[in-house]
Write a sequence for this structure.
C-alpha cells in the first residue's frame, strides 16, 4: 500500500509541469481568456496554500492543530491531494523523518548536498520499493481512516477531479486545477533547494544545525515556506515569519487561514 512513492513523480510532477507549460502557451496565444486567471488564483490559494503549506506542512507534519474537526481535515486533504505532492502520510513521513530529523545530511532526501538539480527536481525518483520511506514517521496519521482513504485514492482524485470538470469546461479544468498544481509542485520543489542554499538573496536569522535559509521571494510567494531558517529554528510554530523572527516584514501568508482553522475547534 505504501510502496513505490516515487511514482508520483512520473504521474504528477512531470505530466503536470508539461500541462502547465501547455496551459501557459494557450494563455499567451489567447486561446484561453485571461479572465480565467482568477480561477488559477483561487486554485493556487486552495491547493498550494491551504492544502500543502497549511495542511500537509503545518497541521499534519508539525501537528499545529491536533483537534481539527474531521470535516476540516477532509477539505485540506482534498486540496493537498490536488497538489500532486503525494498524500498527507507520505509527505509527513518524508518531512518529519528525513528532512527535519536528518536535515542536510545524507539521510535528508532532498537536501542540496546531493546536488542542486537533484534537490529541486529528481529526488523523488529515488524513493522506490528497494529504497522505501519509513511510514512510521507518520504513525499518528496512519491511525486515521480518512488519511488512509486519501492516500489510497490520491491518483484518482488528482486526475479524476480535473477530468470531471473538463467535461463541463476544459479551460476551467486547466486553469483551476492543472496550472495551480504545476505551480504548487514547482514552488515547493524550489523551496527544497533555495530553503537550504543561500544563492543570492538567502539569509539566516538563526544559527541552526543545518544550512536552512530564508528566501524573500519564496517567503511571500511560496506561502511562507521561504521563511525556512525561521521554520527550522522553531518547527512547531504555525507562523514561519514574524512570530518566530520578530521582523515585521517577514509576513507569513498562511496567517489568512487561521480563522478557518481556529473557528469551532475545541
Amino acid at each position: 500500500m505504501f510502496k513505490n512513492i516515487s511514482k508520483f513523480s512520473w504521474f504528477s510532477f512531470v505530466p503536470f509541469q508539461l500541462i502547465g507549460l501547455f496551459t501557459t502557451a494557450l494563455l499567451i496565444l489567447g486561446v484561453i481568456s485571461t479572465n480565467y486567471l482568477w480561477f488559477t488564483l483561487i486554485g493556487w490559494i486552495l491547493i498550494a496554500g491551504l492544502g500543502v503549506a497549511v495542511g500537509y506542512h503545518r497541521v499534519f507534519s508539525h501537528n499545529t492543530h491536533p483537534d481539527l474537526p474531521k470535516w476540516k481535515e477532509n477539505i485540506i486533504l482534498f486540496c493537498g491531494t490536488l497538489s500532486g505532492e503525494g498524500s498527507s502520510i507520505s509527505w509527513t513521513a518524508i518531512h518529519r523523518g528525513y528532512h527535519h530529523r536528518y536535515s542536510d545530511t545524507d539521510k535528508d532526501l532532498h537536501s542540496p548536498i546531493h546536488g542542486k538539480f537533484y534537490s529541486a527536481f529528481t529526488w523523488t525518483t529515488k524513493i522506490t520499493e528497494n529504497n522505501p520511506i519509513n511510514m512510521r514517521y507518520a504513525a499518528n496519521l496512519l491511525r486515521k481512516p480518512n488519511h488512509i482513504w486519501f492516500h489510497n485514492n490520491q491518483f484518482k482524485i488528482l486526475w479524476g477531479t480535473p477530468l470531471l470538470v473538463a467535461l463541463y469546461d476544459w479551460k476551467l479544468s486547466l486553469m483551476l486545477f492543472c496550472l495551480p498544481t504545476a505551480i504548487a509542485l514547482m514552488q515547493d520543489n524550489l523551496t527544497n533547494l533555495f530553503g537550504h542554499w543561500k544563492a543570492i538573496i538567502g539569509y539566516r536569522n538563526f544559527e541552526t544545525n543545518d544550512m536552512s535559509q530564508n528566501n524573500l521571494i519564496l517567503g511571500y510567494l511560496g506561502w511562507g515556506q521561504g521563511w525556512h531558517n525561521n521554520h527550522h529554528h522553531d518547527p512547531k510554530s504555525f507562523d514561519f515569519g514574524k512570530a518566530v523572527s520578530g521582523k515585521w516584514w517577514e509576513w507569513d501568508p498562511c496567517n489568512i487561514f487561521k480563522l478557518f482553522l481556529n473557528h469551532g475547534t475545541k
Observations:
- The mean pLDDT is 93.
- The longest helix spans residues 37-61.
- The radius of gyration is 18 Å.
- The chain is about 55% helix and 0% strand.
